[in-house]
Amino acid sequence: MSLVLSEDQVMIRDEAARLFAEMADSARIREVLSHDLGHDAQLWARVAGDLGWCSLTVPEQSRGLGLGAVETVILMEAAGRRLAPVPLWSTAAFAVALLAHVSTPEACETWLPRIAAGETIAAVAAPGISDASGLMGIAAETENEGYRLSGRVGPLIDAPVADLLLVIARMGTGRALFALRPGQGVEVRRVRSLDGTRSYGELDLSHVPAMARIDRGDLSEDDWTKVVATAQLALAAEEVGAARGAMDVTLAYIADRVQFGRTIASFQAIKHRCARLEIDLAEARAMVYGAAANAVSASPQERLLEALGARALATDLAFRAAEEAIQLHGGVGFTWEYDPHLYFKRAQASAMLLGRQDEHLSTIADIVLRAGVGS
Amino acid sequence: MSQDPVAALRAEVRHWMETHLVGRFLPLKHRGHAGDGDALPELRKEWERELAAGRWTCPGWPEAWGGRGLSVAEQVAFQEEYARAGGPGRLGHIGEGLVGPTLLAFGTEDQQRRFLPGIRAGTDFWCQGYSEPSAGSDLASLSTRARLDAATGDWVVHGQKVWTSLAHLSDWIFVLARCEEGSVGRKGLIFLLMRLDQPGVEIQPIRQIGGGTEFNAVFFDGARAKARDVVGQPGEGWSIGMALLGFERGISTLGQQMAFAQELDLVCEIARETGADRSPVIRQRIARAWVGLRAMRYLAMRVLAEGTDAEARIEALGYKYHWSNWHRDLGRLAMDVMGPVATIEDADPRRDRLRQLFLFSRADTIYGGTNEIQLNILAEQGLGMPREPRGTGGR
C-alpha cells in the first residue's frame, strides 16, 4: 500500500484545485446563495459533463474509468475546500457505489453510463443507516405487486435537483434498494436549509411498483458495508476539504489584520490555535488518504472502521475550523459579507449526514473491544 | 508473498526474536522503554551484544560498516517486528540512530573507524549532551564552555548538561559547547565527542516522577576532548547538532506505535475485566484512542514516504505533537479504566505497566521539543506565520 499519490493522481488533484478555485470562488457561491438554489448548474455542467468527473469510479464496462477510493477522496477534498455547490458526493460517490456494488446488472446498465456521462444527477435516501436507535429509517413491505415504503426520511441533500432517487430501506431482516424517478409517483419538496451551498429536499413515501426495486437478491451485509464505507469516506474527505477552506480564509485574514501595531497572526495565542488546527487537519487527512489506499485490500469491516474513524475526525475538524474562522475574524466573522458562516453552516449540516459522530464512535468501540486494536 | 523482501525480512526477524528473546533474556520482554529506561542494565547490555551477533544492530547502516543497508520500508518492518515480539528498550539507540548517521555524514575517516565498530558491536554506548539548566527550549543559549589548550590541542570543557538519558550506563557523550568566547546563540558552538570515564566528569542521577532514574545531570570540570574528536569545524557545532536530530526521520516511531497498540489492547482488556467497557463515555474514549492511533500510523507512513511534498512536510512538523499528546491521553484513560486500584502499587505487571505509562507519558510532551515549541515551529515553518519576538538578552 502506497501513501504517495501517483503522477495521474497528482494531476487530478491539481486540476480539481484549479477548477474549483476558478469556478467556485466566493463571488460565485454568493450568486448561487442569492438565487436560493443550492446548486450551480454551470459548474455541474463543467464538472460532470465536460470533465466527466462522475465517471471516475464507474466500472469500465459501464463506460467509466474504473478508478478507486483515492481518486474519489482527491475530488471530494477539492470540492469541499470551496464548498462547491454541486451534487458530487451524492452522485459520484454514494450513488455510483450503490449501483456498482448492490444493484442488478440491468440497473447498472441503465444508470451508470448516464451518470458517467454527466447526464444524471442522483440523490440517495439512507436515513438511519448508522442509527442504532431505529428511530430514523425507511421500511419496505410487499403490497399489491409492488412495495409500500414508510418511515422518517429527514432532509435529503441534492434531492431537488436529482433525476434519480435511490432509497435504501429495511426489508424483513435485510435491506432493499429502490430507484425512483421524481415526478413519476414520487414528489420531492424543496426545503430551505441554513446551509445554502447544497439543495435539500423532503420526500413523501408511498407505494412503488415492483420494478423500482433494483438490489440483487443475494446480498450479504458485507456488500452494504462496503457501500456505506465508501460514502462515509468520501464525505469525510469533503469535510477535510471544508476545514482546509475555512483555514485558508482565516490565515489570509489574520495575516492582514493589524491591531496594536502588528498583524494579529503574530500573536502566539492565535498562532497556537492555527497550529492546533493544522495538526488535526494533518491527522484527519492522513486517516482519509490512508483509509482510501487501504480500501482495496481491507475487509469490509476494516473499511467501515477506518471510514467511520475518518468521519469522526473530519466532522470535528470541519466544525472547529469553521468556528475558529468566525472567532479569529472577530466582528466581521459574524457578518453575512465574510465567508466564515458558509463553512460554519456547512460543517453542522454535514455532521448530521449518515449518522452522528457519537454513533460512529460507538460502532468503532464495539468493533475494537470485540476484535482487538489490530496493527 | 514469499517473494516480497519486506515480508521475508519480517518472518526472519520474528523467527530470530522467538528463538533469542528466551531463557536468560526472557525477563527483558517489554522492559526498558521510556519510563523504565534504567531497568536491568547489565542484562540489556548483553542483549545488545546478542543483537549484534545476529546482525540486528544498525540494520540501516551501509554494509561496509557492518549494517544490512536496509531500505526505509525494511527498517520500519524490523522496528515493528521487534516491538511486536516485546523487544526491550534499546540501550544502543543513540549510537545507532544518531551518532552513527552523523559520523557517516560529517565524521572524519578516523572517527568513523574508531567509533562505528563499537556501536555496531553493541559494546560502546552513547548519550546526548544538549540541554542545560538554563538552556531547555532555548537550546542555543547554552553556556557550557570549550577552551582550546594550545599545548595539547585538546578542548577543555566546563559546564553542566542535564536530562542526559542513560549517561550512567554510557561510555561516550556528544556535547554541544561554546568554543568562541563572547559568542551568542547558534554561532561559536562546537560538537565534541567525549569519553565519560575521565577526570572532570561527574554524573548525578535525577529521580523522575515514576521513581526511576533513567536520566542524569552531567558536570564537566576540566574534562577533555581530543582535537580529533571534534565533528565538523569548531564554530559549526550548531549545524552538526541539528543535522543529528534530523537523522532519525521517525523510523523508530512505527516500532513505537506497535508498543502503543499493545498498550491500547491492554487498556481494552482491563476495561472488559473491570466493566468499564460498559460505560458509553469510556467507550467513546477508547474509540477515539483507536482512531488517533490508526491516523498516527498513516501519518507516519506519509511522512516517511519518499518523494514527499509540501503537505507531508507540514505533517512531519506536527507529528511529534500528535503522538505525544495521544500517548498522554492514553495514560489517563488507562488509569480511569483501572478504577480505584489504579493508584495502588500492587504486583500485577499489567497494571504496573499502565501506571508507568500514566506517569512517564507526562514527559512525552516536554522532551524533544515541548508542546508549546512544537506549535511555534508549526505556525512559523508550516503556516508561514510571524516569528516569536526575541528578548533583549537573546539573539
Strand-helix topology:
The complex is a heterodimer of chains A (375) and B (395).
Chain A: H1 7-23, H2 26-34, H3 41-50, H4 69-81, H5 88-102, H6 105-116, E1 122-125, E2 137-143, E3 146-152, E4 156-157, E5 164-171, E6 174-180, E7 188-191, E8 200-203, E9 207-209, H7 221-256, E10 258-259, E11 262-263, H8 268-294, H9 300-329, H10 340-351, H11 357-371
Parallel strand pairs in A: 1-5
Antiparallel strand pairs in A: 2-3, 3-9, 4-8, 5-6, 7-8, 10-11
Chain B: H1 5-20, H2 41-53, H3 72-84, H4 93-106, H5 109-120, E1 126-129, E2 145-148, E3 155-165, E4 172-178, E5 189-195, E6 201-206, E7 215-225, E8 230-235, H6 237-246, H7 251-274, H8 280-304, H9 310-338, H10 349-364, H11 371-382
Parallel strand pairs in B: 1-4
Antiparallel strand pairs in B: 2-3, 3-7, 4-5, 5-8, 6-7
Helix pairs in contact in B: 1-3, 3-7, 4-5, 4-6, 7-8, 7-9, 8-9, 9-10, 9-11
Task: Briefly say what this structure is.
The complex is a heterodimer of chains A (375) and B (395). Chain A has helices at 7-23, 26-34, 41-50, 69-81, 88-102, 105-116, 221-256, 268-294, 300-329, 340-351, 357-371; strands at 122-125, 137-143, 146-152, 156-157, 164-171, 174-180, 188-191, 200-203, 207-209, 258-259, 262-263. With 375 residues, chain A is α+β, with helices and mostly antiparallel strands.
